[in-house]
Design a protein that fits this description.
The protein has helices at residues 21-30, 86-96, 126-135, 138-141, 152-164, 182-189, 195-210, 218-226, 230-241, 247-254, 280-284, 316-328, and strands at residues 40-47, 55-62, 72-76, 102-105, 145-150, 170-176, 267-272, 294-299. It has 330 residues and is an alpha/beta fold. Helix 11 links the parallel strand 7 (267-272) and strand 8. The radius of gyration is 19 Å and the shape is globular.
């Protein structure tokens, strides 16, 4: 497999014109689309056998020049993301060029899965990911599995990894800008400096929760549409629907830092300390030495799922994750 240059946190330097945390964050919306050609993609569906009749949809990307023995990489999007989010396509392209097969998953009720799901994903719904792993065709899992989770998808992945310990079938994992403390992240998002982000995300959450096959009672629909903050949405809709005592109870019980000490496979945790959505102090204050399986990669800058740096048109986080998998999972 082609070598991926060694990458560490000091390597990242923002490139023109993406200077500052907000431009790094917005770049994924402003940069041109990522093409996967000449690699091929096919649609896969995963009916969930959990009594809901919901079905998850995913895209399987196959490299034009596959490399024998490389694990399947499962990509998990963030809040209001989907299989075609730019960061998903960028990571897939980087891995495809190195011979990996990639599965771009749509969580329950997200993207194309929305039309086939009555229910909805949330940060603590690790059981769906666990279920998906049991549904993978044998030929896809034969050479092993690794996973990458972005933002909320990263929080869900960290929770799953901690719940499973060494029992997970994953060889390794990585997260990018995961909110490792859900309560503090939500409070940070509601700060006045983030009002544009907050308004946009909340609007997208409302559209997603009420679209397609979503099965909501009249009270739930009113709770979703009447929410004025993400906290309201979680407190009035997510928490009561999924058995939590309120937003704070949901955030506390699903907080990734509760589960990270028990992670039993090599896991790279990528974050930017200037992330406008997730306080950098959460990462700086965590006891990384408490679990040797965790590798923090904390850049001084990079925004939220940005990392558009000098030396390459590909995000720095893509190269860092590929290198991590090359060293520890392939």
């Amino acid at each position: 497999m082609p070598d991926t240059p060694q990458v560490d946190a000091s390597d990242f330097q923002p490139r023109f014109p993406w200077w500052g945390a907000d431009l790094q964050t917005l770049a994924s919306r402003l940069l041109p689309p990522v093409s996967l050609a000449p690699h091929a993609s096919e649609r896969l569906s995963f009916p969930l056998r959990d009594g809901t009749d919901d079905t998850l949809l995913a895209l399987l990307d196959r490299p034009a020049a596959p490399r024998a023995g490389t694990p399947l990489v499962i990509l998990v999007h963030g809040l209001t993301g989907l299989e075609s989010s730019r960061y998903m396509l960028s990571m897939s392209r980087h891995l495809l060029d190195r011979g990996y097969r990639v599965l771009r998953l749509n969580l329950r009720g997200a993207g194309p899965s929305r039309a086939l799901c009555r229910d909805h994903y949330y940060a603590g719904r690790s059981q769906d990911f666990r279920h998906l792993l049991t549904l993978l065709p044998a030929d896809l899992a034969a050479d092993g599995l690794v996973a990458v989770g972005y933002s909320l998808g990263g929080a869900m992945l960290l929770k799953y990894l901690g719940e499973e310990g060494t029992a997970t079938p994953l060889r390794a994992a990585a997260t990018v800008c995961a909110p490792i403390d859900l309560s503090l992240t939500c409070r940070n998002m509601m700060r006045s400096r983030n009002w544009v982000y907050h308004r946009y995300i909340l609007g997208q959450m409302k559209v997603e929760a009420t679209a397609g096959a979503a099965a909501l009672t009249a009270d739930e629909r009113a709770a979703v549409m009447g929410s004025r903050t993400v906290w309201d949405y979680d407190d009035r809709f997510i928490a009561p629907r999924y058995g939590f005592g309120g937003a704070e109870d949901y955030y506390e019980r699903c907080r990734p830092t509760r589960f990270m000490p028990s992670i039993g496979v090599p896991t790279l945790v990528v974050a930017a300390l200037d992330d406008p959505w997730i306080p950098g102090t959460l990462y700086e204050g965590y006891d990384w030495a408490g679990n040797a399986r965790l590798t923090p990669l904390l850049a001084r800058s990079g925004g939220h799922v940005g990392f558009h740096g000098t030396g390459s048109a590909e995000p720095w986080s893509d190269r860092a994750i590929a290198r991590f998998f090359e060293k520890g999972a392939a």
